[in-house]
C-alpha cells in the first residue's frame, strides 16, 4: 500500500513539472516562429536620418552614394545644350577659362573637376548633388546669403586662384544649369547620401607634416610630382593630375586649405582610384598628408572680409584673429579637441 500512496502523493509534483516543461517548449516555439514568420523589424532610423546627421562612422561606408542623373537623359534642346556645356566647363575648365583658354583667361590651369571628381558626381568627393537644394543660403564665411553663382565664383577665385565670372555670362549660366540639373528631384533644404565630406575622427595629437611628407612620397608624388607640381597635359592647356602647391595650385583662401577638409577629402578619394567605401589611406595617413600639403607654399588671397563674425570661424581655420586664446599653429594643425571643448563650454 505504501508505494502506491507515495506515487499518488508525487503526482501533483509531476503535473507541475510537466506544465513547466510544456510552458518552456511553447515559449521557445513562439520565439522561433516570430523570428521566422513575424513582421519585419522597422527600418532603423539611422538610415532615414543620415541626410541630416551625416554619414555613418568611418569603416561602415558600405551603402552606395546617391547616383547622379544619367547624362544620356539630358534633353536634346537648347536647355540641354546649356547643361552639357556647363558639364564640359566643370570637367575641362582650363580649356575654356585657363591661361590659354578659348573663351577667357581667368584661372590657373586647374579644372573644377580636379577637386569635384567626376564633374561633381563622385560620392563624398566634393559632390554637387545637394547644391541646388541648399542654395541660396547664409554662409558664415561671407556673412551673407549666397546663391549658386557666388559659390561658383568662390571656387574660381580660391581653388582655381582666378577671377570671377559675370553672373550673366554664358559660362556662368551654363555651370549653374548643370548644377541644378544634377540636383533635380532633391527637395529644397535636403541633402543626400554622398554629399559633403566623410566623417573622420580627430587624432589624439596634432597632425604631423613631417610624417605626412613620407605619406606623400609613398602615396601621392607618382601623380602629383615630388614638388607638388602636378602633371600637365601634352598640349599645356591643363593638368592630367593637378598641382597641390606652388604658384599654379589653389590659394590659401580655398576650402581645401583647411587641414580637416583636405584630410576628409583624400580619405574618401585619394590616391587615384580610391572611393569613400574603398579607401586607400588610413585615418592617420590622411590627417598627416593633409598637414604636409597645406604646409607648402602657395598663392595668397586677401580675405579681409571673410568671417565678419570671428566666433563663427571653423576650429581649423588657419588664420586669426580668433574668439579664443589658442594659437594659430593649434588651430591649423590641431589637436582640435581642446578648442572644440572650449567652444562648447562657452556656449553652455
Outline the fold blueprint.
Blueprint: H1 2-37, H2 45-53, H3 78-91, H4 93-97, H5 117-120, H6 131-134, E1 137-139, E2 144-146, H7 148-157, H8 170-182, H9 209-219, H10 221-224, E3 231-232, E4 239-241, H11 259-269, H12 283-293, H13 328-333, H14 337-347
What does this structure look like?
This protein is mainly α and 348 residues long. The protein has two domains: 69-196, Cytochrome c-like domain (Cytochrome Bc1 Complex, Chain D, domain 2); 198-337, Cytochrome Bc1 Complex, Chain D, domain 2. It is 43% helix and 3% strand. It has 14 helices and four strands. The strands form two sheets. The chain has a two-stranded antiparallel sheet with strand order 1-2. It has a two-stranded antiparallel sheet with strand order 3-4. A hairpin with a 6-residue loop joins β3 and β4 (239-241). α3 packs across α8 (170-182) and α9 packs across α12. The longest helix is centred in the N-terminal third of the chain and has 36 residues, at 2-37. The radius of gyration is 28 Å and the shape is globular. The N and C termini lie far apart (84 Å). Mean pLDDT is 88; it is low at 39-56.
